[in-house]
């Protein structure tokens, strides 16, 4: 059977989680997406055309099935480094940029498959038009946790999702796994900004992951809750019991070899664009550029006690960058008062 062959090839090339779904529209969440857009809760990182988001055949006309993959990035940090003034990176930005890792895996899968079958395809990770989590849910890869993440029974929620639209008629997994959260509310209780308003309902605009990526102005009320997070936020997954006693990732490329999982704030402030590219160029969290990370570093310095780092804040202020000015000015003004 074609499908079994695909699973066999995928496992051989290190894709541990795989499922198959049909190309029908996401009727279940169409209305939800519309309401979200009306409430101005869509982020600047999403496809704006809602029709495109909910209908796979608008992306690939002849699509007959969708292969969905999951790759765990849950590694223990064996590269912890001692840094004087540190900011934190979410696990999703520890090693090599996952967009490349998953694309490489899916391209290898397609190359191998093409030795056995003739077909057309389109593949995506994260930046595609469709809703990756809904595809994963529909393909039986995992269930929605109350923290919105897709949780796989063997690997937990620290998994990235990718998908291949194809005109092959592969047998699909027409089942969805029911939520296994039960009475647990640990993620909702732990969220620093209360972005998780209720089970599975997130206000993305106040999620720290969003705040570390947006170029919009962040209020003092929100920035004071960002702690030392320089890119992403893992809180609602770190507290999750479904991420305990599970299989860890075998993908060593997600190890934080270069960074140790942290940002050296002093180094970040002083490094040139070229040095930044050399050190952080292939990490997922650098996609918004150095200035956004520097803005988050200013916020981190404020949260750990600006009075001890006034020289660094003044150095950043002197760079005269529009995105950084409001934060530096606020801190320096508060210091004088
Ligand atoms: C925009 C975006 C964000 C935004 C908004 C997130 C969000 N929840 O919408 C921000 C910047 C905040 C963000 C943060 C993160 N993201 Co993001 N993000 C995306 C992106 C590009 C689009 C997501 C989207 O369309 N959201 C809009 C709607 C559809 O989501 P929603 O409002 O939450 O609605 C859902 C729920 O209501 C749910 N639902 C429906 N019925 C039910 C029923 C029950 C019982 C429950 C519980 C839920 C539920 O279904 C809806 C549809 O999925 C996707 C990639 C992609 N193209 O899909 C990655 C993606 C979702 N992100 C991902 C990751 C890893 C993260 C972070 C963990 C990164 C980090 N460490 O900082 C955090 C997690 C935050 C969180 N708790 O969700 C992964 C998720 C992998 C996984 N295992 O689930 C994705 C799939 C990227 C990828 N390809 O791997 N992200
Ligand atoms: S990623 Fe952080 S801020 Fe966003 S919902 Fe989870 S805990 Fe809350
Ligand atoms: S912390 Fe609890 S409620 Fe939240 S996703 Fe994990 S199991 Fe579900």
Assign an overall shape: globular
Number of domains: 2
Task: Compute the number of strand runs.
Answer: 11
What is the overall pLDDT average? 96
Description:
This protein folds into two domains: 2-75 and 95-166, no CATH class; 186-336, no CATH class. With 337 residues, it is of the alpha+beta class. The model has no long low-confidence stretch (mean pLDDT 96). The strands form four sheets. Strands 1-2-7-4 form a four-stranded antiparallel sheet, sandwiched between helices. Strands 10-3-11 form a three-stranded mixed sheet. Strands 5-6 form a two-stranded antiparallel sheet. A hairpin with a 2-residue loop joins β8 and β9 (201-202). It contains 15 helices and eleven strands. α1 packs across α5 (98-113). It binds cobalamin and iron/sulfur cluster (2 copies). The site of one iron/sulfur cluster (SF4) has 12 residues, from α7. One iron/sulfur cluster (SF4) binds next to α8 and α10.
Q: What are the defining features of this structure?
A:
337 residues; alpha+beta; 2 domains; four-stranded antiparallel beta sheet; three-stranded mixed beta sheet; 15 helices; binds cobalamin; binds iron/sulfur cluster
Task: Set down the secondary structure blueprint.
Blueprint: H1 2-12, E1 17-21, H2 27-38, H3 50-54, H4 56-59, E2 65-72, E3 86-89, H5 98-113, E4 121-125, H6 132-138, E5 143-144, E6 150-151, E7 159-166, H7 186-190, E8 196-198, E9 201-202, H8 208-211, H9 220-223, E10 229-231, H10 235-238, E11 262-264, H11 265-270, H12 273-280, H13 290-305, H14 310-318, H15 325-336
Parallel strand pairs: 3-10
Antiparallel strand pairs: 1-2, 2-7, 3-11, 4-7, 5-6, 8-9
One iron/sulfur cluster binds at residues 145-147, 181, 184-187, 239-242.
